Automatic annotation (TrEMBL):
Occurrences of domain Helicase C-terminal (ranges): 465-613
CDD domains to which the protein is assigned, alphabetical: RecG_wedge_OBF
Matching PROSITE patterns: HELICASE_ATP_BIND_1 (PS51192), HELICASE_CTER (PS51194)
Residues covered by the Helicase ATP-binding domain: 275-431
Name assigned to this protein: Uncharacterized protein
PANTHER family in the cross-refs: ATP-DEPENDENT DNA HELICASE HOMOLOG RECG, CHLOROPLASTIC
Residue stretches in coiled coil: none
InterPro entries named in the record: DEAD/DEAH_box_helicase_dom, Helicase_ATP-bd, Helicase_C-like, NA-bd_OB-fold, P-loop_NTPase, RecG/Mfd, RecG_wedge
Pfam families (UniProt xref): DEAD (PF00270), Helicase_C (PF00271), RecG_wedge (PF17191)
Keywords for this protein: ATP-binding, DNA damage, DNA repair, DNA-binding, Helicase, Hydrolase, Nucleotide-binding
Record-level GO BP terms: DNA repair
Amino acid sequence: MKLTDAVYNIPTVGQSYFAKLKKLRIETIEDLINHIPRRYKDFTNIKKIKGLKANETASVIVDVDSIKNEYTRRRFVVQKAVVSDETGVCNVIWFNQRFIPRNIPKGSKVCLSGIVERVGNKLVISSPEYEIIKDNRYLIHTARLVPVYPETKGISSKWLRSKIHTALDLICDSLEEFLERDILGKYALEDLVSSYKKVHFPESLSEAASAKKRLAFNEFLFLHFKSLIRKNDWQNTKPSYRLIVDKKIIKDFTHSLPFTLTPSQTQSAEEILTDLEKNYPMNRLLEGDVGSGKTVVAAIAAFISFINEKQTVIMAPTQILAQQHFDTLNNLFGKYKIRVSLITSETQKKALGKTDIFVGTHALIHKKVILDNVALVVIDEQHRFGVEQRAHLVKRSKKEKKSPHVLTMTATPIPRTVALTVYGDLDLSTLKELPKGRKRIKTWIVPEIKRQAAYVWIEKLIKLEKIQAFVICPLIEESVVESMQQIRAATAEYESLKSVFPNLTLGLLHGKLISTQKLKVVELFRNGKIDILVSTPVVEVGIDVANATVMLIEGSERFGLAQLHQLRGRVGRGDKQSYCLLFTKTISGNSIKRLKAMERSMSGFELAELDLKIRGPGEIVGVKQHGFGELKIASWGDINLIKDTKEAAQMIYKKPKMFKKITKYLNLADIAMN
């Protein structure tokens, strides 16, 4: 049996279980053995019945003297057993598990692992795990460190334990170690076979941790290799438009701007301009905090494309953001004859004559737009697009086998080590500071007791200073799900706030509005016709209103720090003092720790690092929504392992002949020839 065989080839799995396993991302035997435990139950305290004590977790090997289902007056079914060993007799009880008397009939020898309780003057083992002892068979469910796995309906940890144990027996002899001894020694790694056995059935927690480290090493190593191969393929097989960069013209352009570039804007622009002069296409990620000025840097690159008589395509995830870019670019290029067109599913605003810069949504892929001379493709908030969408846009922009330069941008703060792993095939530029003159946004946690006082303060501020405010709610409609009851849905909140602020004008924005309605609401808000905009997090990207200085976020504890930071970045765009109010009913725990960090820090990257430690990477970049690289074994928080595996991947990639095992395993024969 091979690792690549479908998991239904394992005895007693079959097609019905295969369908359930898919929900756990398990389709092959390799997927199954890489489905590692999330924790372990400690059943290593093995006792005789005479030595049992109340309130301890213990394991006993006993004979079943009697066992039966007993029905109570309230129609509950209780399973009662009497068990014994050479030192004494003990009672055992389970609840609502009618099948147990069939599974462990009278006369069986069984191992029980569970909590010992005192009932009256007797000791009782309550709801223990059980395992029939036959022919000195290896115990996997009791009397040891017992693995507990991520589960799904119809797939329990006990079932997974049995199938993984069977799978390891079937394939261990065929598992081939693919790392050289030098690599294993340098990074203190277990061999492959031992790692799989010990991560699933360890003798100690330290043994399990060592085994998991080896398997996590594999996962990161393969990620780095994918990036190195993609980067090599991009550079070696895709000729590009080699653009001429006239530094004097660039200097004149930057001096024409109504502001001075920050040091990191200048550095990032220089890195991009250097790329544009190379004989292979740029593939760079521009990462910058909310309001750090990524659009300006992209505009400099687009300006180079323009003076080389080439076109630029800029794709944004939403119509609101596309409109924002369209307006911004027209302002930046006001002194130059650069023609900008806006292409979305709803609109197609074109400047007169030929287009130099196309700005749009995914409609750029589907509409019949002639992209016949494109030298630069800019993809904003790139993690919000699928891989195929990005690739299709680049493919549409090709001409005569020439690939355009590609600049991807994100305002989602991603810790550098994570970015360099996930986007390892991209060169990375980072905008580290905000433009001068921006005032720090005052951020406060607002408990429920201060809600009414906050409303009074907001209304007073709007009337006296003629400013505007956002109110953000995560849902559109009231949810019947109990865990979401504290979240004020946008529609319900909009109706509620109309009575709270009867003398102010309120607007409502959410994802179910059609595009023309969204644009109308945004335009009214931008023109000062709406005092308070009640919205779902659709405003996270793209709405830039300098007069909006108050950001109120309901149920703030339910957001990741990165998203809270991006929402906060919608205010503070002008010269007025801005405020972010984090409304919450939570008063303790990690949630308050995270919200306190929002009060202290204005750095998205600092907050992302903290969120990585507390909540994991899915909350940084939206794994569930946007398909960010999800790990099965490794953790994005393991910075040292990321660094070690990157070092190992580069070492192997540069000298493949020294590492023949992994070169063969990963089919890297082509690079070994170089």
